[in-house]
Design brief:
The complex is a heterotrimer of chains A (about 100), B (about 475) and C (about 475). Chain A is built from three helices and three strands. Chain A has a two-stranded antiparallel ribbon. Chain A is flat and about 55 Å long. Helix content of chain A is about 35%, strand content about 10%. With about 475 residues, chain B is an alpha+beta fold. Helix content of chain B is about 40%, strand content about 20%. In chain B, strand 8 and strand 9 form a beta hairpin. Chain C is about 35% helix and about 15% strand. Chain C has 14 helices and 13 strands. In chain C, the strands form two sheets. In chain C, strands 1-5-2-6-8-7-12-13-11-9-10 form an eleven-stranded mixed β-sheet. Chain C has a two-stranded antiparallel sheet with strand order 3-4. The longest helix of chain C is centred in the C-terminal third of the chain and has 21 residues. The chains are: A alpha+beta (about 100), B alpha+beta (about 475), C alpha/beta (about 475). Chains in contact: A-B, A-C, B-C. The interface between A and C is large, with 54 and 74 residues. Strand 3 of chain A pairs antiparallel with strand 11 of chain B, so a sheet runs across the interface.
Chain lengths: ~100, ~475, ~475
């Protein structure tokens, strides 16, 4: 059965998992991935991957700003959705570690 | 020790709107006012590519001598950070807009083509403010979704000076082709440097250290210098170096460890399913090639040839397209390239620097500059008065040099009769000095010139006075 | 007659003729909901007094008709939860394109229907707001993830509803609840404003009582959208004009791989392969066996591609700009991990982990890239078959509705029940589920549905055959 380093993947996905959750998830994911192993039976040499079912290309928008400026009420609606805001900023705990 | 440097430059496109939504791009707007559901990454929204970003990006690839890809795709770069609204950045990984190309630099009288690896399109993140509220960081997403070109060089630079020269040249190209305004203060150009050192040229490249947080060309130069030295010293002491990411501390002038290789991100790149592929047609390429203006390197060569300028002067005059254009217009008006160049490199650059202006933000025009140069040439004003008293007025207010001259009483007296009168008086009043000169004391003439200047209240043309005093003494 | 029992087509005509108003319809619906929904729980929110509409001409195709909306499609200034705790308190500041189109077509937007959390599921059991039950047997699931939409249309507590389909989420609940559900061609309907599950698979579509309503609604919803790069600017035919056309000479492919499955209920097999095929042949269609050789791999591909895209699509639910944030978060990492750890339910977490793993360094080629290549193979299978036949006929689900909790402990078994619907999403082709019979289990008559699939943008053909088939049953 396929083994996953659950702790590491959970960290990557920024998901806190309890011990009980991990105990449950581990065999389930192993089972699913073992099932997926069957894909190895398919010959895929020279096959292009399909990331889109349609063959659309070159879809653009023109470089035109919004017809109307974004009204202050609309901005307030954006900010009001935030679980923590200050003025018109979104607020998070102070970041000490440096970025990406 | 042999240092090897590669640079990753992020240049902001000068489009009207963001890369994937219709929000305007404006510097220093109140927080979260240039946002919409798309660039806020709200649930359910989708990106649509700005056509102008594609065009300008393609133009940049061509200007840099790169090869545009036949088909380009966008990928998602996944990581969590509060300035990244969607939890992923839309970037290009597998199929970037262009490959290869080069940037020509000149260091220590030698020119070199610095090879490029790739140019790709991506969106910028927002901004975090850490120092306004204790224990909190604040998120402003106005910048999120700003279109960027990431230009990655090969590890082809050998010194901090070359790194600096590379940035200067790259900036000149991007400005010339109208792709980016390259305003450093507005963060239009940002840079990360990859630095390694090795003992011998035959050794494989050393462990690559990525240096981040380089906010000015000067910072790049200093940081690269610092890293080369740090790594060289470490190797000489027999220490081991590691592949890592370090942060430049501008205030302290040093780098410090940010992240080791083990802590490196796993960005889980995969094709962005919300965008379709884009094919680059021959028409696209031809249209953008046709839109390319004369590039800085070619312009520099032409300036050297056409105007008989030194490489250094030509380089300075072609760094900024608006300056170059103004210069050429001015030369047509003055018909004196050398003097015009001297005015640019002396007075005009100093004035622009002191007032932090672009040439088109002044009232100076080519005819006005030509008028000013003519006043000097005709001896109506002294060079010093022209530079210090008249030029700033003209540049600031657009007044004609002649009227400034009159208003400030700067007209030189070159009229022979007036000068002869003052000279005769001076000679009469100082017979001892005249005798000294005749007995061979050369400096005596200068004393007499000074007297004449005083009599004219400084308005006499000093060159002419000198000549005439000598003639009078020798008569 | 109670207006809640009528179809959208009939009601639009009545409203146009001034025989009834949308208020009358809403009143009847409110009564029906009051009577039935406390046991079915198809709705997460319903307010008969508060309905959204625009002033439109009487000619508007959905004039006065109330439409229920799955709770993953954004309506301006309205709450939207996706069946998740993590979206608590979120109010959408914008309309999905399909909502704009419905409003412009004279529809009245009302009621938000329950769903599996983030559309992850085939039973409507994973909603943070509790499960929805099948109106035909309250001990059984309505299917999922658009379980609420299917249940309210079946229970006549809605006239018609919007759902979304990523691997069968419209068709399977339609089948289990005995209504009509269509997943349009990928790109046929704008996804703008649909909270994404798997971007390369998601499509919005209608759930209705009959095929005519399905055609009527899709005509309104379909068409390119400048806000969705993946929507196609292919002309939208008048789907209603395909109804009543005969199906003489139409070639129907019956893929042999779809009937090999263990777990396929004999009653379902009989209803589709024998009875339905016979009925269609009687009307002049010709059935032939075809082969879709990579069918067995569809679930494997799906459970890599869909969770991978989902893991990235769900990254924005981080407690920063909207939704729920864990109350005790000392630092940034805790803010993320606790908010997401407690904001998402177990199925969402399972899929996020699975997707994150498939995309992670060292596994991408083995899982994601390979899955995308096998996806190409699956698509090619359909391209081949559609050279020979006009439509493909299959069951929609291997069994009728299963019991609540029956598959909740075994995710793989739950995933396997999507076997017949997933391929259409992977290939991007349109597919419709139509009621075709019933199986009696525990004394209850449970609906069975069949599925027709067609070439991309050939929805008209689906309506033509589905309508012809439906006509033989009424």
């Amino acid at each position: 059965m396929v083994h996953i380093d659950l702790k590491q993947v959970a960290r990557l996905a920024r998901l806190h998992l309890t011990e009980a959750e991990m105990k449950l998830l581990e065999p389930q994911l192993g089972q699913i991935l073992s099932f997926v192993e069957s894909l190895k039976e398919v010959k895929v040499e020279g096959v292009e991957p399909t990331s889109h079912p349609l063959s659309l290309s070159n879809v653009f928008r023109e470089d035109q700003p919004h017809v109307k400026a974004v009204e202050p009420e609309r901005i307030q609606a954006f900010i009001k959705n935030s679980p923590a805001s200050r003025g018109s900023f979104f607020e998070v705990p102070k970041i000490i570690e440096d970025k990406s | 020790m042999i240092p090897t440097i590669g640079l990753e430059v992020h240049a902001q496109f000068n489009t009207r709107t963001k890369i994937f939504c219709s929000c305007a791009l404006r510097f220093a707007s109140p927080p979260n006012t240039l946002v919409c559901p798309v660039c806020l990454g709200l649930p359910g929204v989708l990106p649509v590519l700005n056509r102008e970003v594609f065009r300008l990006g393609l133009r940049a690839v061509l200007a840099l001598g790169g090869t545009p890809s036949k088909t380009i795709r966008f990928d998602r770069k996944n990581y969590y950070y509060p300035d990244l609204p969607k939890g992923y950045q839309i970037s290009q990984f597998a199929d970037p807009l262009g490959h290869g190309g080069f940037v020509e630099i000149a260091v220590g009288g030698k020119t070199k083509k610095v090879k490029l690896n790739r140019l790709h399109l991506e969106e910028d993140a927002g901004k975090l403010i850490h120092d306004q509220v204790p224990d909190k960081s604040l998120v402003d997403l106005n910048r999120a979704g700003t279109p960027l070109a990431e230009i990655v060089s090969e590890p082809d630079l050998d010194s901090a000076e070359e790194a600096y020269a590379y940035l200067v040249s790259l900036k000149a190209i991007l400005k010339a082709i109208g792709v980016s305004d390259c305003d450093m203060e507005k963060g239009h150009l940002r840079c990360d440097a990859n630095v390694s050192v090795r003992k011998n040229a035959s050794d494989p490249l050393g462990k690559k250290v990525e240096v981040k947080n380089l906010n000015s060309f000067k910072a790049v130069k200093q940081a690269v210098q610092y890293e080369i030295q740090r790594q060289t010293e470490a190797l000489e002491k027999g220490e081991k170096l590691f592949q890592e990411t370090r942060l430049w501390d501008d205030a302290r002038g040093r780098t410090h460890l940010m992240r080791s290789k083990e802590e490196a991100h796993d960005y889980r790149y995969f094709p962005e399913p919300d965008l379709v592929p884009f094919s680059v047609s021959q028409e696209d390429v031809e249209r953008e090639r046709a839109a390319l203006p004369e590039l800085p390197a070619a312009k520099k060569a032409r300036f050297m040839k056409d105007y008989a300028l030194s490489e250094y002067d030509a380089g300075l005059l072609t760094e900024e397209p608006k300056i170059a254009a103004f210069f050429e217009e001015a030369v047509r008006a003055t018909t004196d390239a050398k003097t015009t160049a001297n005015w640019f490199i002396g007075s005009i650059f100093a004035y622009l620097g002191a007032h932090n202006l672009n040439i088109d933000q002044t009232r100076l025009t080519a005819p006005l500059l030509a008028d000013l140069l003519r006043l000097v040439k005709e001896g109506k004003v002294s060079l010093q008065a022209a530079k210090e008293k008249i030029f700033p007025e003209v540049a600031e207010k657009g007044t004609s040099p002649e009227s400034v001259m009159k208003e400030k009483g700067l007209l030189q007296v070159s009229d022979d009769k007036a000068l002869e009168g003052w000279i005769a008086q001076a000679l009469d009043e100082n017979p001892k000095v005249v005798a000294d000169f005749k007995s061979g004391k050369e400096t005596a003439a200068m004393f007499l010139v000074g007297r004449v200047m005083r009599k004219s209240q400084g308005k006499a043309n000093p060159g002419k006075v000198q000549d005439m005093v000598r003639k009078a003494l020798q008569a | 007659m109670n207006l809640s029992q009528k179809t959208a087509f009939e009601l639009a005509e009545s409203c146009r003729a001034g025989k009834c108003s949308s208020e009358d319809i809403l009143k009847d619906l409110a009564r029906a909901i009051e009577a039935k929904d406390s046991s079915i729980k198809a709705y997460v929110r319903f307010d008969a007094k508060k309905s959204l509409r625009r002033t439109v001409s009487k000619e508007a195709p959905l004039y006065g008709v109330p439409i229920a909306i799955k709770d993953n499609i954004c309506v301006e200034n309205e709450a939207i939860t996706c069946g998740s705790k993590i979206l608590q308190n979120f109010v959408s500041p914008y309309n999905a394109t399909v909502i704009e189109r419905l409003l412009d077509a004279g529809a009245v937007i009302f009621g938000r229907t329950n769903m599996d959390e983030f559309a992850f599921g085939s039973s409507c059991e994973t909603s943070f707001y509790g499960p929805t039950r099948n109106p035909h047997d309250l001990g059984r699931v309505p299917g999922g993830s658009s379980g609420g939409s299917a249940a309210c249309v079946a229970a006549q507590t809605a006239i018609a509803a919007l759902g979304s389909d990523t691997g069968g989420s419209i068709r399977q609940p339609a089948s289990l609840c005995g209504v009509v559900g269509i997943k349009p061609t990928y790109g046929r309907v704008s996804r703008y404003g649909l909270i994404a599950f798997a971007s390369s698979l998601d499509q919005i579509g209608p759930l209705t009582r009959d095929v005519r309503d399905s055609a009527l609604l899709l005509k309104v919803l379909a068409g390119g959208d400048p806000r969705d790069s993946t929507s196609a600017n292919v002309p939208v035919p008048d789907y209603l004009s395909f109804l009543g056309k005969d199906i003489k000479g139409m070639k129907i492919g019956i893929p042999k791989e779809y009937f090999k499955k263990e777990g396929l209920s004999p009653a379902v097999e009989k209803a589709v392969r024998q009875e339905a095929a016979q009925v269609l042949e009687k009307q002049g269609a010709r059935c032939e066996e075809v082969s879709l050789p990579h069918t067995a791999f569809a679930i494997g591909v799906y459970y890599i591609v869909a969770p991978s895209e989902a893991s990235s699509n769900l990254a924005r639910f981080d407690g920063v700009r909207f939704g729920w944030r864990h109350p005790s978060t000392g630092n940034l990492l805790e803010l993320y991990e606790k908010t997401r750890g407690e904001g998402f339910g177990s199925e969402a977490k399972r899929r996020i982990i699975l997707g994150t793993y498939s995309l992670s360094s060292g596994y991408y080629d083995a899982y994601y890239l390979r899955a995308m290549k096998v996806r190409t193979r699956i698509k090619q299978d359909f391209d081949e078959v559609f050279k020979k036949v006009n439509v493909i006929l299959t069951p929609t689900s291997p069994t009728p509705a299963f019991k609540l909790g029956e598959k909740a402990t075994n995710p793989l078994e739950m995933y396997l029940s999507d076997i017949y619907t997933i391929s259409a999403n992977l290939a991007g082709i349109p597919a419709i589920s139509v009621p075709c019979g019933a199986e009696v289990r525990d004394g209850k008559s449970l609906p069975i549905g069949l599925q027709f699939m067609a070439k991309p943008f050939d929805e008209g053909k689906l309506f033509q055959i589905a309508h012809a088939f439906e006509g033989t049953r009424i």
